[in-house]
Amino acid sequence: MTLKIPYEDQLHADTVAFLSAQPKQLLIGGRWTPSLSGKTFVTNEPSTGLPLAEVYEAQPEDVDLTVADARAAFEKWRKVTPYQRERLLHKLADLIEKHSQVLAEIETLDNGKPIGAALNIDVPSTVEMFRYYAGWPTKIEGGVKPVSIPNRLNYTLREPVGVVGTIIPWNFPLSMISWKLGPALAAGNCVILKPAEQTPLSAVYFCELAIQAGFPEGVISLLNGAGEVTGAALVAHPGVDKIAFTGSTEVGRLIMKAAAGNLKRVSLELGGKSPHIIFDDADLETAIPYAAGSIFGNAGQSCNAGSRLLVQRKVYEQVVEAVANSAMHIRVGVGMDVGTDMGPLTSLEHYQRVTRYIELGQQAGASVRFGAQRPSGVPQGGYFVSPTIFENTTDDMAVVREEIFGPVLVATVFDTLEEVAQRANNTPYGLAAGVWTRDISRAHQLAGMLAAGTVWVNCYYQFDPSSPFGGYKQSGFGRDMGHEALEQYLNTKSVWVGL
Length: 499
Ligand code: NAI
Ligand code: MG
Fold this sequence. Notes:
The protein is of the alpha/beta class.
């Protein structure tokens, strides 16, 4: 298939060269290869809706081959010293940094996000994550246990679980690679990466860099393809020891069931409907841009988006007016244009889903404070929606209860701490929450009361490789980042010695 490269005159020569070589192949046993069946799929450029690249789709037989190669590779990889693993992870981080521009352009073209965000957030945070985990291989320790049986020595060994399948979403493709592969590789596992079919490309370039960094054959494999085909085959495979997943709660459930066959380990980072709570004593000047940024950043396509804004009565009107004003000034446009604040949504399917929610909100009687229209001056065929704010909602409406995963905010008023805690927790999700107040005891009280894996007080959307991130309730279990993530990729062996 010959495809016209969009925005070609704005791209780095290496990006053009990368996009010109198609179809993109699978990485199996250290070799780039077509799928055995020759089957391919197409990924689109979201600002035009036009095809961007053709990619080979891994079928179950490709998954079988990959798992067999990864298992063989694991027997060699487990003998590589911690220091060598550290060196490889550092080399990989350096190469990602060196090729930041190309990776950012690929991410923007495939996902739609503004190039500034890709360049200043996605790529550097990926580099940081790999550097953080590069520090770990030489620090993973067992312990000597104070057992009370005479003449016995007991100690523990921390060992990699083996072959890890990682299934990631399309909203932050590169970052998600680093969240899973950083700890999995640091712990000494082999990894099979299955990116989202909406954004398969940055993973291909990433794997080219991993080969350059010198990772041995079969330690990192790449299988692009559809969730129900490639993803499902990986999850069901008896040769896979663990699945690390980020995506929808619905698919999280399917994965848990499918993983039961060989009782593989599962960690799930799923959806959210996170409350963002502003009390009337808060520093509003700081809180307001965070309230807007937490839902409109990345076009709302974040699991931790602050999608429910709860504002105390006295300042409700002032806060919502200011957030609406911020929404009005967001420049919605093409990701490759440097002036763009908010790009299109990533896929047509998702665009239809988000616009359906906006209609549902209106039908249910919520009032539109801002947006709910197609933005003007954007290319035909692109998946653009404008930032949207709903008011006068009830807690049973779909727009209040369900994850929309778009730039759609629901604003409501509250009076008391007890009320807001109850309403904030009135959701099947429990990923994140934000609290703004100058009252220190109220802040800590609420931090304890909120059923969420992350609570941000007087800030929002803060991430650091050392701080664990994950869900309560139906937002999943297991943690990404920190030493907590590392634990999930390790087994503990207890060794007894008769003295
Ligand atoms: P999804 O959960 O279907 O996709 C995430 C990943 O799972 C992709 O790599 C996909 O190929 C894979 N997958 C899908 N079905 C699978 C299966 N049966 N077995 C194994 N892997 C499978 O999410 P989708 O459909 O792209 O988006 C739907 C909704 O999910 C979004 O509107 C959003 O609400 C939520 N979502 C949440 C994310 C998060 O960060 N927590 C990320 C992406 C979506
Ligand atoms: Mg899906």
